Amino acid sequence: RLPEITTELEKMNENQGKVDLELEEVKKFVKKIEKQKKVVDKKIENLDSELTTVLDHQSEVSAKKNEIDIKIQNLKNKLHDARVSKSEAESQQKIIQNKINDNITKNKISVEELLSLEQLSHKLATISSTRQSTSSEIKSKISNFSSQKTKIANDIAELELILQKSSIAANRYNEKIKLVKSVMHEDYTISQLKDDSKKLGIEGFVYEILSWDKQHERAALAVGSDWVKAVVVPDFETLVSLAQVARDKKLPKLKIIPLNTIPEFHMKMPKTSGLLGILSDYVQCDRKYIPIAKFLFGNVILTKTRYDAHELSKVGYNAVSINGEFFESKSSAVVVDINSKITKLTKIISQSSSVDGLFKTINLLSNHIQKKKSNLRKIDQIHHDSLERLQLAETEFGNASYSNSNLKSQINSARKLGNKFSQRILELKKQKENFSPKIIHFSSTVESLEQRIKLVDQNYSNNEQNSIANQLKLLNDKKSLLNSVHSKIMKELSEEQAKISVVEDRKRLRKNELLSEKSSISKEKIELESTIITFQADMGVSEQVLVKLRGKEQELISTSDTSVSQLSAYDEKLDKRKRKERDITNELNRLVRESDGHDRDLNEIKSKESSLKKILDLFGFDESIETFSVEPFVEVLEKEFNALTPSLNAIAPQKYLDISTGYRTMSNRKNDLEGERNSIWAFIESVEKEKKQTFLDAFDTIDKEIRKIFTKMNGGNAWLELENEDDIFNSGISYLIQFPNKPKRESTSISGGEKTLAAVVFVLGLQKLKPSPFYLFDEIDAHLDAPNAESLSKIVEERSHGSQFIMVSLKDSVVEKAKLIYGVYPKNGVSNIVIYKDKRMPSMTS
């Protein structure tokens, strides 16, 4: 509203000259009418004097006959003097008119120059605004480019890290797959056929179809270890086609069992003690695949002991003990299964396509990184060009502003010159108007003298009395005409004076209204600014108090579980008080706005009352005035109303209502934005709180695991500490170690072997938080003594149930815990490899 009032006042000031000119013209017209009135009054007086003279002359015509000649001569002299004075006044008036025309011409030239300067100033202001907006746009682009540059740089760093890790993983899996494929085990055959099992008619594999309990596993694997990876097909034709496919693909080894060719077999149990039954009865499968179970295990008797199985083999039965000792019929050999497993090399071989796809993805990722780097270089170049454009735009903006200030000074000078010309023209017009009544007076005097001379001449005739009567009639007619003209002039004069007073009072009233509204809005602006400053200061103090309260809150969280509920209760109370504070602030703002509106309404009413009193005083109204007919004034006011109606702004009340509604709407919008800002701050605080809590939970988990593992390894203590608990994200973490009978020290100030042990403990502590499928350690026990190496091997063995550990070691205590060992030794200058596997591990070679 304040800019609109300022703009309206400026427009009023700009239009002041026009209004003043119009008022001056009206006033000039009034003065002209007054002068005409004076002339008419003077004419009436002259007529009255002439009438008196004629009447005196008529009464004294006979007595003054001798004086007529002298009087005629005097009149002729006066006529001559009057004509001379009239000619001088007319010539002086022409000179003044020429000066007025010259000044008007000069004023027009000055006005044209002023208009051209104002147009040029407007163009410069437009250019200056354009340059300023261009600078702002370029600055925003520079900011966007900077953020894009930072984001792309971060993306490149992350992508390069991903590329590095994925390359390492792909190479590791690729080597493993190459090793398995080079063995050409029957698992390779399974992996090649498994993808097309439905097309080839494969029902499944024996180890997938059959299953058994844990207690019978040793016996089942001892008997059927050669057949567990055989392929099961429905008929012999499928067997032949599958064998042809295996030959075409040059697969290393393949066993096939057709279901429809398995003969029915029923074995009679010998009547001997120590028997558990036929082994096929302890194998589970679908009813469809029972012949396979009988084919593989139906001719084998399950016994309790090795002795019972051996005795049965002597009498012609195939027998196996529950511990996995298999004795064939009448054979002196035995097959013992201690801890064999069904190998899962098929899964590793099937991963080869995924690894190939991973290599392709790595190449695409590398190309994407190169494109990102190219985009980063382009953004750098655009950023540099934008900086140059910004410097050029700011330079042009400065030049335009300087030129605009110079033009404004020239415009002010031109306006002053135009005002001087206007004042000079007004003065000359006043001088010209002063000569007009003189000329009229001289003209009337000449006319009067001529008539008097004519009358005096007529008095010499015999019809002197008739001429005197005619002259009296003529003078009376002139007097009546002048009286009518005088009444008309008086009426016009009163109308023009009323117009002037109404226009001036209306202009003054509107200006006072705008100034009062401007002052009230300015006061409201100052009060709001002071309130904002006070709230900002209170906000700084509140933020400091909030930081302290957050520190206390963290202490309460770390020391007591019950403080969480108390903290939530305090948060709820704080939210309620904040909402209450916002409601009170909104209500206070609403009351202040209502008070300002009432003050403005009161000022408007008072100003209207004073203006109406002035108008009444101007027309001579007071409290003791008597009643009279107002019809003449009503006619004058109706004429004035009809004249002013086209220039009135009929939609001004609606505009005022729209502006008031807009002001209230913007106030409500401001309150809504403040509420949204508070909700955003609350959301940010909740995110920060959740982030901090997540970090502290992870920190506590790793800290507990490190304490547990380190104490278990050597009986010492190890723990983590935050360097600054009040600012955990901008500070570091200290890793403190205390070996038995030694003081506590940081991890950076301990020996090499101690650092190795501390690092291994830290890695194992991280495993608790986020386990990895594989861990690769390269001689981590090289600097450890025997007890620590033994403790390390136990910890690694415990953790190997959830992850796979691959270690390079020379310590016996570590090697003896391994399930699979690769030994490297030189022979004739060539490295050779020896493999040792735990008997409980499944076979990896055929």
UniProtKB/TrEMBL annotation:
- InterPro entries registered for this protein in UniProt: P-loop_NTPase, RecF/RecN/SMC_N, SMC_hinge, SMC_hinge_sf
Which UniProt key words apply to this protein? Coiled coil
A GO cellular component entry from the record: chromosome
Keyword Coiled coil part of the UniProt annotation: yes
Q: Where is the SMC hinge domain?
A: 200-313
- Per its record, what are the GO molecular function terms? ATP binding
Entry annotated with the keyword DNA damage: no
Q: What's one Pfam family the UniProt record gives for this protein? A: SMC_hinge
Could you tell me the superkingdom of the organism this chain comes from? Answer: Archaea
Q: Which SUPFAM superfamilies match?
A: P-loop containing nucleoside triphosphate hydrolases, Smc hinge domain
The UniProt entry's GO biological process terms, in alphabetical order, are: chromosome organization
- Coiled-coil residues: 30-92
Spell out the protein name for this chain. Answer: Chromosome segregation protein SMC
Organism (species): Marine Group I thaumarchaeote
What is the taxonomic lineage of the source species?
Archaea, Nitrososphaerota, Marine Group I
